[in-house]
């Protein structure tokens, strides 16, 4: 079981990773098309993230 601090750190890292993924998508619209934060999160839910 993770401590409260470990859970908070895990959540912080996940947010940073999602922000980096979204920036990559935003910077490469010609490859990925238009996607919102909600679109990215919906896709990640398919992988239970």
TrEMBL record:
Matrix-remodeling-associated protein 7 helical domain segment(s): 1-48
Pfam families referenced in this protein's UniProt entry, alphabetically: MXRA7_helical (PF25473)
Transmembrane segments: none
InterPro entries, A to Z: Mxra7 (IPR026622), MXRA7_helical (IPR057534)
Record's protein name: Matrix-remodeling-associated protein 7
Organism: Myotis davidii
């Amino acid at each position: 079981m993770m401590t409260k601090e470990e859970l908070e750190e895990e959540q912080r890292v996940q947010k940073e990773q999602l922000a980096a993924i979204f920036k990559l998508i935003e910077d490469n619209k010609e490859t990925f098309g238009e996607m919102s934060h909600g679109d990215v999160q919906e896709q990640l839910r398919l992988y239970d993230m």
